[in-house]
Amino acid sequence: MSIKIAFTDIDGTLLNKERVPSSALKTEVARINEQDIPFVLISSRMPSAMYHIQKDLNIKNTPIICYNGGLVLVDNKSIHSTEIPCSILEIITALNTEKKFHISLYNNNDWYVEEMDFWAKREENNTKVTPEIKSIEAVLENWKSTNKGAHKVMCMGDKEELDIVMESLTLAFPEELHLYRSKDTYIEIANKEISKLTGIKTLLENSYSDLSLENCIAFGDNYNDIEMLDAVKIGVAVQNAKKEVLAIANDITDTNHNDGVAKAIEKYL
Question: HEC string of the chain?
């Protein structure tokens, strides 16, 4: 088998009902570790929301691809970073002058919210990371002075409000922003230059130069996994994936709640 490295999405793909790696998954990851096959987490999550999963799987020394390719870390050091500039962030936040929806701003391991509302608490529960409470104006002022931007923006709220945000930003920044709607109540915003596939390519070029996409297997479930699954040698969708993901996958494994990734690792690696 020419597969030498594995990449996996997290939410909806890797974790079980308790939102943790199952014992079967731990066993399979340990087995491929002994074969020196890296098991790389690739997610829209921030780094600190991925570390505890790496720890559970005993792969803490493996690189991670965060923010859908916006930040690539090797040995906890950035080898690639693409952000949304503050000039665009100011326009995004101006859409929420009446505070009708929640905005989270992310840069590396920093996560800022204006208050611990329903949405912040929900994300805290899902990711096991606690945000810092700070006004958007203060965050952007600091970022402008330190030449930073956002690796990700999360807008969360009622569907009707987010429909308006989605339409406004799609029209305003068709070439600058990638807008990903994982649910009716969520919009994830990133720089359009990056994707999970660009993250994989960056990591291969930097740290695994003897490998190519022909040596990769990847696992996913959602729209932001399609490009990645389509490009690698073996793209595996979990059974609970979106129909568009199932349509392009090389193979379909069991659901994430029924050890789908573990079963695919056992099959292919």
Answer: CCCCEEEECCCCCCCCCCCCCCHHHHHHHHHHHHCCCCEEEECCCCCHHHHHHHHHHCCCCCCEEEHHHCEEEECCEEEEECCECHHHHHHHHHCCCCCCCEEEEEECCEEEECCCCHHHHHHHHHHCCCCEECCHHHHHHHHHHCCCCECEEEEECCHHHHHHHHHHHHHHCCCCEEEEEEECCEEEEEECCCCHHHHHHHHHHHHCCCCCHHHEEEEECCHHHHHHHHHCCEEEEECCCCHHHHHHCCEEECCHHHCHHHHHHHHHC
For residue 72, give Cα distances in angstroms to 100, 102, 247: 33, 27, 28
pLDDT digits (tens, 9 = 90+) for 241-255: 999 999 999 999 999
* Dihedral over Cα of 28, 234, 6, 16: its sign: negative
Sheet holding 152-156, edge to edge: 132-133, 110-113, 102-107, 152-156, 186-191, 177-183
Q: How far apart are CA 129 and CA 45, in angstroms?
A: 10
Amino acid (1-letter code) at residue 230: D
Residues shown for the chain: 269
Overall pTM > 0.85:
yes
Q: For residue 182, what pLDDT is reported?
A: 80
- Residue 17 to residues 12, 48, 166, 257, Cα–Cα distance (Å): 10, 21, 30, 6
